[in-house]
Design goal:
It is built from 15 helices and 25 strands. It is of the alpha/beta class and 466 residues long.
Length: 466
């Protein structure tokens, strides 16, 4: 497909998302550079980059990374908050066909060491420090035990340091010819995203360009996203929610992305007002904090249009309050790291009850079944484990063939470990985790159902039942 296939006038309308899912992550961005180079793409604090400036900076960084030895298929770990440099590195890796390994900025020595070693990361791009934590000191301690780690690139320390490259130097190195890289979106990995689950060591979910691009197009379709939208990236970009619904959706829809590196509810409300945010994604706690903020009524949130609430069970009462008090047609969605992520989502024409009490219907292309412990499909309305097949489903767990076979059967059905029901319209209601179900004298108690009752009380802000 030609990157210039969609002309400028079409870009201002709803794109034909069906044509985008087969593009690589880099091609999604390059397409926007051709279509509307002057449109603002990324905003962080006082820094603003247009799609043209962003794509050009991505290629310059990609050329420098290539010069220093990064090649297609190499693992590039990324340990950084929601900064502009995260977005640039994300797309620079995509341009070279390298594999991004995002690390939670809150991880400390044990988790970082395990993931860097297990992934055999060749490059690490990180920040000198964030908050009160010194990442350079940490990496210097770990590096002797990480034989695969060849290059460490640091943002925020211009001098670099022994064995370190300064991020800023990548932007000012002599122009180096950047080779074309052949990428097969359906086969080539783009991301190794570690998920802890409930037991054992973290497992790396192997996600392809297609897994992420397809899911991003499905989200864009459901949210009716266009280049007129402005997305608030308050969720971390190192999480699958941020990867697909923020960093990639920006290029899929040609929307503007406004970054937050430290989430504070009042700051989020201020940014919504100042930047005229139209798409506000978040986990339930974020919306709870915003709705309950003492200055909530003083902010102009009239620009809000929609967004996704996900990554944790969303109380029905909170969804009602978002729609009523924020005037935001929030969509409740469900998915996992292994499915990149969304499997289901509610829609604008759903009833109040459906939007508040379910996570919607399967995204087109996704198959869902509710089964018992013998893998037999259950009647509508009965509680069982949700299993799925999806174009967003990972290739498997990295260097963990047994875990992959345990999660994905021979017909491609993935066991989520989540308990759910399915109604006649296809709406999914998540009841809880299979491992969290309480068995009291043979009577099954689902913590989620008890929590929902508490959330109806006006004095309850958050509750967890175990």
């Amino acid at each position: 497909m030609s990157l210039s296939e969609t002309n400028n006038s079409e870009m201002q309308q709803k794109p034909n998302y069906a044509t985008l899912a087969d593009l690589s992550i880099w091609q999604l961005l390059a397409r926007q550079r051709e279509a509307m180079p002057e449109r603002e793409a990324v905003v962080f604090a006082n820094r603003r980059l247009t799609f043209g400036e962003l794509a050009n900076q991505v290629e310059r960084v990609a050329a420098s990374l290539f010069k220093h030895g990064l090649r297609k298929g190499d693992m590039l770990a990324l340990l950084m908050p929601n900064w502009t440099e995260f977005v640039v590195t994300f797309y620079a890796a995509a341009r070279l066909g390298a594999v991004i390994v995002p690390l939670n900025i809150r991880y400390r020595q044990n988790e970082i060491e395990y993931i860097l070693r297990n992934s055999e990361s060749k490059f690490l791009v990180t920040c000198a420090e964030f908050g009160s934590y010194d990442y350079i000191a940490l990496i210097n301690r770990l590096r002797p035990g990480l034989p695969s780690l060849e290059q460490v690139i640091v943002v925020g320390q211009a001098a670099g340091g022994p064995g370190l490259l300064a991020w800023e130097s990548l932007l000012h190195e002599p122009v180096f010819e950047l080779p074309e890289v052949e990428i097969n979106p359906k086969d080539d990995l783009f991301m190794l995203l570690y998920t802890s689950g409930t037991t054992g060591l973290p497992k790396g979910a192997m996600l392809t360009h297609y897994n992420i691009a397809w899911n991003s197009t499905a989200i864009a379709e459901a949210l009716e996203a266009t280049s007129a939208d402005v997305i608030l990236a308050a969720v971390p970009l190192f999480h699958v929610f941020g990867v697909t619904c923020c960093a990639t959706l920006m290029s899929t829809a040609g929307a503007q992305l406004v970054l937050m590196d430290i989430y504070k509810p009042e700051d989020a409300l201020q940014i919504i007002q100042q930047e005229r945010i139209t798409i506000h994604h978040g986990v339930p706690t974020m919306f709870i904090l915003e709705l309950n903020h003492p200055n909530f009524a003083h902010f102009d949130l009239s620009s809000l249009r929609t967004g996704i609430i996900a990554a944790a069970p969303a109380p029905a009462e909170i969804i009602r309050r978002i729609r009523r008090d924020m005037n935001c047609e929030i969509a409740s969605a469900y998915g996992l790291t292994e499915t990149a992520p969304d499997l289901t989502i509610t829609h604008f024409d759903d009833s109040d009850e459906v939007r508040a009490e379910t996570v919607g219907r399967a995204v087109p292309g996704v198959e869902i079944r509710i089964v018992n412990d013998d893998n037999e499909e259950l009647p509508l309305g009965e509680v069982g484990e949700l299993i799925c097949r999806s174009p967003g489903l990972m290739k498997g767990y990295f260097k963990a063939a047994d875990a992959t076979r345990a999660a994905i059967d021979g017909e491609g059905w993935f066991s989520t470990g989540d308990l759910a029901t399915l109604d006649e319209a296809g709406n999914v209601r998540i009841v809880g985790r299979k491992k969290e179900m309480i068995n009291r004298g043979g009577f099954k108690i689902y913590p989620r159902e008890v929590e929902e009752l508490y959330y109806k009380h006006p004095k309850v802000q958050e509750v967890a039942v175990i």
